[in-house]
Amino acid sequence: MKTLTTNILHPDHAMKLVESRMEPGEEIVRIGSTDRTNHTEVEEKVIRAKHLYAFISQINQNIVRIKDEETLFRNACSMAIEFGKFKMAWIGKVDKHKERISLLESCGIPTDEIEFFSKKFFQTIDAQKYAIQSNTFYSWNNIEDDPELQEWKDFANRYGIHSCIVLLLKKSGNIIGTLNLCSTESNFPPDEEILLLEEVASDISFALDLFEKEKARNEVMLQRNLAEEKLIRKNEELKKTNSELDRFVYSASHDLRAPLCSVLGLVTLIEMESTEAAIKQYSGMIRTSIKKLDEFIKNILNYSKNNRLELQIRHIPLEQTIDAIVTLLGHSKEAKGVEFEVNIEEQELFYSDFQRFTIIFENLISNAIKFQDYSRLNRVIKISGKSDKDFLTIKIEDNGIGMAKEFLQKIFEMFFRISGERDGTGIGLYIVEETVTKLNGVITVDSQERVGTTFTVQLSNMIP
Q1: Residue 124 pLDDT grade (very low, low, confident, very high; cuts 50, 70, 90)
Q2: Are β-strands 351-353 and 313-315 bridged in parallel, bridged antiparallel, or unpaired?
Q3: CATH architecture, domain 224-308
Q4: Of 55, 14, 6, which Cα lies nearest the Cα of 183?
Q5: Is 175:98 a contact under the CB 8 Å cutoff?
Q6: Predicted local distance difference test score (pLDDT) of residue 123
Q7: How far is 200 from 187, CA to CA, in rounded Å?
Q8: Taking the model in full, what pTM does it have?
Q9: Nearest to 368 by CA among 415, 335, 345
């Protein structure tokens, strides 16, 4: 039997990867073809995800070992090339006026091109300014078709670069630089991989905060007198233990998530290849268990961040932030068929810790999706709220399966779970209440079985 794989233009104008087979027989020749497009796309997606998780894992191992910014930046660039499989990587430092970016470290950029970057690129590129001014990432998905990157195109063409992403690096909540990654792929990265790359930048920023805290501790130690030496030593031992615990949690958690991603990719391939109902049932059970474990790992990370990191107060655009969370969670398989209604009235600008705010409402909206009532034709999650100069009050209402009254006083306890087909990790709502308390707030719940559940969160408006 002979096979041939080729790209074919489908009548709907989409390019398809088709595998053709020809098997000669005694009297007839059997000819068949199979559309391999989705199979190939999934394989490529799994490979990219493995590269990104390997990159994240190496970054976090370095955070555990490295004690200075220069080495961390240098290693981050080289690891982006070696493990993330990017074409080029560099880190730029933003001046105090946020008007100029200078090249700090790089990998993959030819030596004779460094001057081009230093004198031209970092002074004029609009993408860098956009990322800094908007306080978010910026990506070029197709450099060739972007009219604003004329000066950059010749360089990109020489080295086969088709897409780039600019990620922000922060110290104590302030932007101090950018991590810039270039790929030979067009339309890269997709949305789900952007989240992973933002996680890399967040982890590097976390390390910078650790370095800064270490430096501050050393300065304090120099000012102590001999009478305080014993107390300082005990206190520093405790801080060191907490710091090592933080680093261990980060490194271990990310190292666990990398193989989980690989297993999830293999499950997808099994489901695509197999037609047996039993295998599809078992693979679905495996997928559910993997997602549950991944959710537990992310909750551990959130718990660590909430306990260790100081509050970083900033303005939070309420409707925009809630809409982003709904969009992110609404794309999940579990949210299919759920209608979201968002109505946020911002009478006064609201100030709080953005990362902790996101942890609270991602957990609550995710719970509302998880515990929906599939027997209902109309499944609705309503998110309403109002902010004034003192407080923000937000309600999340669903018409899901609800809870018995006897459980309402227990659901915020660590590892408490209501037995059933869709029980959670037992830590999510505990983290929510801890985080709400950290933000000088309160959370209450009202629920009725087969009617629905309402969570009410009230947070203090921490106007500077």
Answers
A1: very low
A2: antiparallel
A3: Orthogonal Bundle (1.10)
A4: 55
A5: yes
A6: 47
A7: 20
A8: 0.44
A9: 335
